[in-house]
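In this supplementary section we document a worked example of the pipeline. Step one takes a protein sequence of length 342 as its only input; no multiple sequence alignment statistics are reported here. Step two produces a three-dimensional model, which step three serialises into structure tokens for compact storage. The input and output of this example are shown verbatim.
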Amino acid sequence: MPVAVVAAAVSLAPGLERGEDIARQAGLPVAVVTDKMGIVQKRRASADLHPSALAVAAARHALGDRDPRSVDVIIWTGSEYKDHIVWTAAIHCQRELGCTNAVAFDLSARCSTGILGLKLAADLLATNPQWRRVLLCGGHRTGDLVDYSDPNTRFLYNLADGGSAVLVERVDEGAGDNVVLGSAIITDGAFSKDVIIPAGGTMAPTRAAPAAQETFLRVPDPEGMKQRLDAVSLKNFLKVIRDAAGGERIGYLALLHMKRSAHDAIVAELGLRPEQSIYLDHYGHFGSPDQVLSLGLAEQRGLLKPGDVVVFASAGIGYMWAASAIRWQGPTFSRAALAALA
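The serialised model returned by step three reads:
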């Protein structure tokens, strides 16, 4: 039986950080931040709004009036930077949502976790006939990890805060649902230590208070990383997108937020019109929620028609390039979930 995306939602952190604020802190011209980096504004959470709460808020929208006890599996697709370290966020979400019959666990693949989660959900449902419904949910507050005074991490200045949820179910043949068509993933260990947080982990335990500068994302070899990434990134993006689509014409590309020129290059190389992908310059880069947000905005703006192949695409530091495709037949965002995009 096919597997489909039956509902989706995002929760946007209520705070805003504007491009001019980032430019001032980074010592950059405003136009560089707003136009080149594509950060007109981005969403930021307050200190008391944690990733699990952002995930639960999105999950409530995605579940709607469905009985939470009908969820068989919960997969955390949010950040590893979450409420606590060495902590399974999915089990906490299970408690908060009342999904008492679910099996819950965390998944981790940086900004590609959501797409990896979608593939895993489809595979789990295909191979476990006792399960029917999988909830993917996760929250991000990775905006906390950005140091605007570090020019080596400028490509991370777009990191923002929010949550997302996707409900995946086994469906009947020909039921008219948004069936998952396929996924494709590439990983490259050459980048495994190119973006790190120095403090924490077994190499630099933090039982004593670490120096503040050690708690932000850092790039030890920025020039080397740029040269290696420039050589493979566009090629890998195009490969996973095309492979996920399985040779079918792409109707809409739900792409993560990146600098404007990179976004435009991917869209152009695929032969898509600009309106076939939304540039998230008023939201920032949440991580896994980017693709879900893009899908919701496309539904809200009437950019999709039944039968369109929608491809989710992302890249996560480490590095992983990943894409999943669905055949869109109807809205995944409820009216309430769309209202949360405001």
